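Posting this for the archive.
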Amino acid sequence: MHKLPEFGLIWVYLAASPLLGLTMTLCAYVGAHWLYARSHFSPLANPVAIAIALVCGMLAVSGMSYRNYFSGAQFVHFLLGPATVALAIPLARQLPRLRRSFLPLFCGLTLGSATAIVSAVAIMVLMGGGYQLAASIGPKSATTPIAMAVSEKLGGLPAVTAILVISTGIFGAVFARFLFNWMRIDSHEVRGFALGVASHGIGTARAFQVSPEMGAFAGLGMGLNGILTAILAPWLIPLVVRFLP
Protein backbone atom coordinates (compact mmCIF):
# COMPACT_ATOMS: atom_id res chain seq x y z
CA MET A 1 0.00 0.00 0.00
CA HIS A 2 1.15 3.53 -0.80
CA LYS A 3 1.56 5.78 2.18
CA LEU A 4 -0.51 8.92 2.19
CA PRO A 5 1.59 12.09 1.87
CA GLU A 6 2.14 13.88 5.11
CA PHE A 7 -0.20 16.78 5.75
CA GLY A 8 2.73 19.16 5.86
CA LEU A 9 3.67 18.33 2.29
CA ILE A 10 0.06 18.78 1.17
CA TRP A 11 -0.08 22.13 2.92
CA VAL A 12 3.10 23.33 1.21
CA TYR A 13 1.48 22.53 -2.13
CA LEU A 14 -1.81 24.24 -1.21
CA ALA A 15 -0.07 27.31 0.21
CA ALA A 16 1.59 27.92 -3.14
CA SER A 17 -1.80 28.10 -4.88
CA PRO A 18 -3.34 31.60 -5.28
CA LEU A 19 -6.78 30.05 -4.88
CA LEU A 20 -6.07 29.24 -1.23
CA GLY A 21 -6.04 32.93 -0.23
CA LEU A 22 -9.33 33.54 -2.03
CA THR A 23 -10.89 30.44 -0.45
CA MET A 24 -9.73 31.47 3.03
CA THR A 25 -11.19 34.96 2.58
CA LEU A 26 -14.57 33.74 1.35
CA CYS A 27 -14.84 31.03 4.00
CA ALA A 28 -13.90 33.49 6.75
CA TYR A 29 -16.56 35.96 5.65
CA VAL A 30 -19.24 33.28 5.21
CA GLY A 31 -18.48 32.02 8.71
CA ALA A 32 -18.47 35.56 10.10
CA HIS A 33 -21.79 36.35 8.44
CA TRP A 34 -23.26 33.15 9.87
CA LEU A 35 -22.26 34.32 13.36
CA TYR A 36 -23.67 37.76 12.53
CA ALA A 37 -27.03 36.23 11.56
CA ARG A 38 -27.03 33.99 14.66
CA SER A 39 -26.62 37.10 16.80
CA HIS A 40 -29.77 38.54 15.15
CA PHE A 41 -27.62 41.00 13.19
CA SER A 42 -26.25 42.73 16.25
CA PRO A 43 -23.76 45.47 15.25
CA LEU A 44 -21.43 44.14 17.94
CA ALA A 45 -20.95 41.00 15.82
CA ASN A 46 -19.69 42.92 12.81
CA PRO A 47 -18.85 40.34 10.10
CA VAL A 48 -15.92 42.35 8.72
CA ALA A 49 -14.20 42.47 12.11
CA ILE A 50 -14.84 38.77 12.71
CA ALA A 51 -13.62 37.82 9.22
CA ILE A 52 -10.41 39.82 9.70
CA ALA A 53 -9.76 38.06 13.00
CA LEU A 54 -10.40 34.65 11.41
CA VAL A 55 -8.06 35.33 8.47
CA CYS A 56 -5.34 36.64 10.80
CA GLY A 57 -5.70 33.54 12.94
CA MET A 58 -5.46 31.22 9.93
CA LEU A 59 -2.37 33.01 8.64
CA ALA A 60 -0.71 32.87 12.06
CA VAL A 61 -1.45 29.16 12.53
CA SER A 62 -0.52 28.14 8.99
CA GLY A 63 2.58 30.33 8.73
CA MET A 64 1.51 31.56 5.30
CA SER A 65 3.06 34.88 4.30
CA TYR A 66 0.83 37.83 3.53
CA ARG A 67 2.33 38.03 0.04
CA ASN A 68 1.18 34.49 -0.79
CA TYR A 69 -2.21 35.09 0.79
CA PHE A 70 -2.84 38.31 -1.12
CA SER A 71 -1.88 36.75 -4.45
CA GLY A 72 -5.22 34.95 -4.27
CA ALA A 73 -7.25 37.38 -2.18
CA GLN A 74 -6.48 40.29 -4.50
CA PHE A 75 -9.47 39.27 -6.63
CA VAL A 76 -11.75 40.37 -3.78
CA HIS A 77 -9.69 43.55 -3.51
CA PHE A 78 -10.24 44.18 -7.22
CA LEU A 79 -14.01 43.89 -6.77
CA LEU A 80 -13.98 46.89 -4.40
CA GLY A 81 -13.81 49.17 -7.44
CA PRO A 82 -16.88 47.78 -9.27
CA ALA A 83 -18.78 47.56 -5.97
CA THR A 84 -18.13 51.25 -5.30
CA VAL A 85 -19.23 52.22 -8.80
CA ALA A 86 -22.38 50.11 -8.38
CA LEU A 87 -23.44 52.43 -5.54
CA ALA A 88 -24.54 54.83 -8.30
CA ILE A 89 -27.65 52.66 -8.85
CA PRO A 90 -29.34 53.28 -5.46
CA LEU A 91 -28.11 56.88 -5.59
CA ALA A 92 -29.90 57.43 -8.91
CA ARG A 93 -33.13 56.15 -7.37
CA GLN A 94 -32.84 58.74 -4.58
CA LEU A 95 -31.85 61.60 -6.89
CA PRO A 96 -35.02 63.74 -6.38
CA ARG A 97 -34.56 63.61 -2.60
CA LEU A 98 -30.87 64.38 -2.94
CA ARG A 99 -31.65 67.54 -4.90
CA ARG A 100 -34.06 68.76 -2.23
CA SER A 101 -31.48 68.12 0.51
CA PHE A 102 -28.46 69.64 -1.25
CA LEU A 103 -27.74 72.46 1.24
CA PRO A 104 -27.91 70.43 4.49
CA LEU A 105 -25.95 67.61 2.86
CA PHE A 106 -23.25 70.01 1.68
CA CYS A 107 -22.93 71.62 5.12
CA GLY A 108 -22.88 68.25 6.88
CA LEU A 109 -20.27 66.92 4.46
CA THR A 110 -17.95 69.91 4.85
CA LEU A 111 -18.17 70.02 8.65
CA GLY A 112 -17.98 66.24 8.99
CA SER A 113 -14.94 65.87 6.75
CA ALA A 114 -13.06 68.75 8.37
CA THR A 115 -13.92 67.54 11.88
CA ALA A 116 -12.73 64.00 11.12
CA ILE A 117 -9.37 65.29 9.92
CA VAL A 118 -8.76 68.01 12.52
CA SER A 119 -9.86 65.98 15.55
CA ALA A 120 -7.76 62.94 14.62
CA VAL A 121 -4.62 64.98 13.91
CA ALA A 122 -5.07 67.14 17.03
CA ILE A 123 -5.45 64.10 19.30
CA MET A 124 -2.40 62.44 17.76
CA VAL A 125 -0.22 65.55 18.16
CA LEU A 126 -1.40 66.26 21.72
CA MET A 127 -0.58 62.66 22.68
CA GLY A 128 2.99 63.13 21.49
CA GLY A 129 2.78 61.72 17.98
CA GLY A 130 4.93 63.29 15.27
CA TYR A 131 4.00 64.66 11.88
CA GLN A 132 4.35 61.29 10.16
CA LEU A 133 1.73 59.68 12.40
CA ALA A 134 -0.50 62.74 12.09
CA ALA A 135 -0.34 62.47 8.30
CA SER A 136 -1.16 58.77 8.59
CA ILE A 137 -4.26 59.24 10.76
CA GLY A 138 -5.65 62.41 9.16
CA PRO A 139 -7.44 60.81 6.17
CA LYS A 140 -8.77 57.82 8.16
CA SER A 141 -12.45 58.49 7.33
CA ALA A 142 -11.94 58.32 3.55
CA THR A 143 -12.01 55.08 1.57
CA THR A 144 -8.81 53.05 1.74
CA PRO A 145 -7.33 53.86 -1.73
CA ILE A 146 -7.87 57.61 -1.30
CA ALA A 147 -6.69 57.63 2.32
CA MET A 148 -3.50 55.72 1.51
CA ALA A 149 -2.72 57.98 -1.45
CA VAL A 150 -3.23 61.13 0.64
CA SER A 151 -1.13 59.72 3.47
CA GLU A 152 1.72 58.80 1.14
CA LYS A 153 1.69 62.23 -0.50
CA LEU A 154 1.90 63.97 2.88
CA GLY A 155 4.75 61.77 4.14
CA GLY A 156 2.66 59.41 6.25
CA LEU A 157 2.71 55.63 6.47
CA PRO A 158 0.16 54.13 4.05
CA ALA A 159 0.18 50.76 5.84
CA VAL A 160 -0.71 52.45 9.14
CA THR A 161 -3.37 54.49 7.35
CA ALA A 162 -4.96 51.33 5.95
CA ILE A 163 -5.21 49.83 9.45
CA LEU A 164 -6.74 53.04 10.81
CA VAL A 165 -9.23 53.25 7.94
CA ILE A 166 -10.45 49.70 8.55
CA SER A 167 -10.61 50.28 12.32
CA THR A 168 -12.60 53.48 11.79
CA GLY A 169 -15.07 51.70 9.52
CA ILE A 170 -15.59 48.83 11.94
CA PHE A 171 -15.98 51.19 14.90
CA GLY A 172 -18.63 53.20 13.07
CA ALA A 173 -20.52 50.13 11.89
CA VAL A 174 -20.56 48.71 15.43
CA PHE A 175 -21.35 51.77 17.54
CA ALA A 176 -23.15 54.20 15.21
CA ARG A 177 -26.61 52.79 15.95
CA PHE A 178 -26.19 53.28 19.69
CA LEU A 179 -24.95 56.83 19.15
CA PHE A 180 -27.82 57.69 16.80
CA ASN A 181 -30.35 56.27 19.27
CA TRP A 182 -28.78 58.23 22.13
CA MET A 183 -28.99 61.43 20.07
CA ARG A 184 -32.56 60.49 19.01
CA ILE A 185 -31.76 60.67 15.31
CA ASP A 186 -34.31 58.53 13.48
CA SER A 187 -34.04 59.75 9.89
CA HIS A 188 -32.52 57.12 7.60
CA GLU A 189 -31.16 59.85 5.34
CA VAL A 190 -29.26 61.50 8.20
CA ARG A 191 -28.07 58.21 9.68
CA GLY A 192 -26.89 56.93 6.33
CA PHE A 193 -25.10 60.08 5.24
CA ALA A 194 -23.34 60.48 8.59
CA LEU A 195 -22.29 56.82 8.55
CA GLY A 196 -20.91 57.11 5.02
CA VAL A 197 -18.95 60.27 5.81
CA ALA A 198 -17.48 58.91 9.04
CA SER A 199 -17.07 55.20 8.28
CA HIS A 200 -16.72 54.91 4.47
CA GLY A 201 -17.32 51.49 2.86
CA ILE A 202 -17.77 49.37 5.98
CA GLY A 203 -20.29 51.85 7.36
CA THR A 204 -22.05 51.95 3.98
CA ALA A 205 -22.34 48.16 3.93
CA ARG A 206 -23.92 48.30 7.38
CA ALA A 207 -26.32 51.02 6.19
CA PHE A 208 -27.51 48.86 3.28
CA GLN A 209 -28.31 46.10 5.76
CA VAL A 210 -30.73 48.49 7.47
CA SER A 211 -32.48 49.87 4.37
CA PRO A 212 -31.79 50.75 0.71
CA GLU A 213 -32.57 54.37 1.49
CA MET A 214 -30.03 54.55 4.28
CA GLY A 215 -27.48 52.76 2.13
CA ALA A 216 -27.95 55.19 -0.76
CA PHE A 217 -27.25 58.20 1.43
CA ALA A 218 -24.30 56.41 3.03
CA GLY A 219 -22.84 55.73 -0.41
CA LEU A 220 -23.23 59.39 -1.29
CA GLY A 221 -21.49 60.44 1.92
CA MET A 222 -18.66 57.96 1.38
CA GLY A 223 -18.00 59.09 -2.19
CA LEU A 224 -18.17 62.82 -1.52
CA ASN A 225 -16.08 62.56 1.64
CA GLY A 226 -13.36 60.73 -0.26
CA ILE A 227 -13.15 63.61 -2.75
CA LEU A 228 -13.29 66.30 -0.07
CA THR A 229 -10.70 64.57 2.11
CA ALA A 230 -8.28 64.52 -0.83
CA ILE A 231 -8.80 68.30 -1.12
CA LEU A 232 -8.83 69.31 2.56
CA ALA A 233 -6.26 66.97 4.12
CA PRO A 234 -3.14 68.29 2.31
CA TRP A 235 -3.55 71.75 3.81
CA LEU A 236 -5.51 71.01 7.03
CA ILE A 237 -3.05 68.45 8.44
CA PRO A 238 0.10 70.65 8.19
CA LEU A 239 -1.93 73.60 9.51
CA VAL A 240 -3.09 71.75 12.63
CA VAL A 241 0.38 70.32 13.31
CA ARG A 242 1.95 73.77 12.96
CA PHE A 243 -0.38 75.51 15.42
CA LEU A 244 -0.44 72.83 18.13
CA PRO A 245 2.37 72.58 20.68
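The chain has a mean pLDDT of 82. The chain is about 80% helix and 0% strand.
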